[in-house]
Amino acid sequence: MARLIIQGGRRIHGTFTPLGNKNAVLPMLAACVLTDEPVTLENVPRILDVENMLRLLADIGVDVRPRGHSVTLCAKELRKTSLDPALCGRVRGSILLAGPLPARHGSAILHPPGGDVIGRRRLDTHFEGLAGLGIAMARHNGAFRLRRTRAFRGTELLLDEASVTATENILMAATLAPGRTVILNAACEPHVQDLGALLRKMGARISGLGTNRIEIEGVKRLGGARHRVGPDYIEIGSFLAAAAATGGALTVTDLPDPTTLRVMQRAFSRLGVAWTVEQGRLHLPARQDLRIRQDLGGTISKMEDGIWPAIPSDLLSVALVLATQTRGSLLFFEKLFESRLYFVDRLLEMGATLVQCDPHRVLVSGPARLRAQHITSPDIRAGMALVIAALCAKGRTIIEQAEMIDRGYERIAPRLRALGAVITRQE
């Protein structure tokens, strides 16, 4: 088990360049099995989830050739379509092979995926949507056995929830399904759009990306492609929160699209954080006047997540820590995952002023003087949130189980050191 040791009280400042979006990379890696031609992805973060996904693909016979932050994959000669149960258990992204594997290769055996323990993460929408396309699923000894039937063809699907990974699974499978597929109540997050952009380069015929109605005209085969993964806006938001909470100035290069920036700015402006964008660079000034923006009438404001373009759930944890350093009170309402906010117990130990109303709601009042503690990272986003808290805290904080943070953030310690943090890692 690795740990991070952080000496608080230093400002985070400098220039930060984000890597590719973790939530876009994982489905793109899965998409390689849709073709027998090479697929090259650029700007790939070398994080634990990506490494485990590459191991999973290599195990079934995909030729995996990483080079720095690029990777070339070729699924010309698969050895099998049965996934290793242990590798499935290490990465949530393993479920993203449920669509493309049987769509092109006829069958697949998957096992329950791993990932963060942040609440129930149902798979029903995946299998119901794939069944609508003609990919049948049977459960045997805990494994999911998928089979492409003779009924495999395009259809109209109304998803029971706007699940991101279910939308991606169905989208990938539908590219090879004869006829026209319409996905209603589709997820429209930036990483879904980025996956769609890659599939188009591979020859897929897709329209409606960025909306809740996606249409796909199936094609007989897909080809290879080269694609640069878009920047990770959750990583950008995390580093902006770290800089704002510690009073530092930050310049961010390689920005996401304007709509994504507007969603982020809307969230951070509730906490008094402001920035400017000039010539493709974001500038966050030092010593922000951090004040909660109240609702009309002076009532306590609320920050809640939701489907895009609402505030992403993955940003809520870091925003909550930033709120501990902000003047005023703010109610955080996590609607999607009933266990995501349980990490606030660690913040209470560090001196934060907050009340956990129930599994979904936390009332935060600030600013609070945080103090160093010996704590454990429960998941990716909570882990990063605790890193930000440690940067603000007085004294030396030890964060155990740093591997959880490694799943979503590449080389977190040296990248923060480059921005002024006093942070070391012990294996």
Describe the model.
The longest helix has 14 residues, at 233-246. The mean pLDDT is 95. Helix 1 runs parallel beside helix 7. The chain is α+β, with helices and mostly antiparallel strands and 427 residues long. The strands form six sheets. It has a four-stranded mixed sheet with strand order 21-22-1-23. It folds into two domains: 3-18 and 231-426, UDP-n-acetylglucosamine1-carboxyvinyl-transferase, Chain; 22-228, Enolpyruvate transferase domain (UDP-n-acetylglucosamine1-carboxyvinyl-transferase, Chain). The protein contains 14 helices and 23 strands. It has helices at 22-31, 48-59, 85-88, 100-105, 124-133, 164-174, 190-201, 233-246, 258-269, 313-323, 344-349, 380-392, 403-406, 412-417; strands spanning 3-7, 14-16, 39-42, 63-67, 70-74, 107-110, 135-140, 143-148, 156-158, 180-184, 205-207, 213-217, 225-228, 250-252, 276-278, 281-284, 301-304, 328-333, 353-358, 361-366, 374-376, 396-400, 422-426.
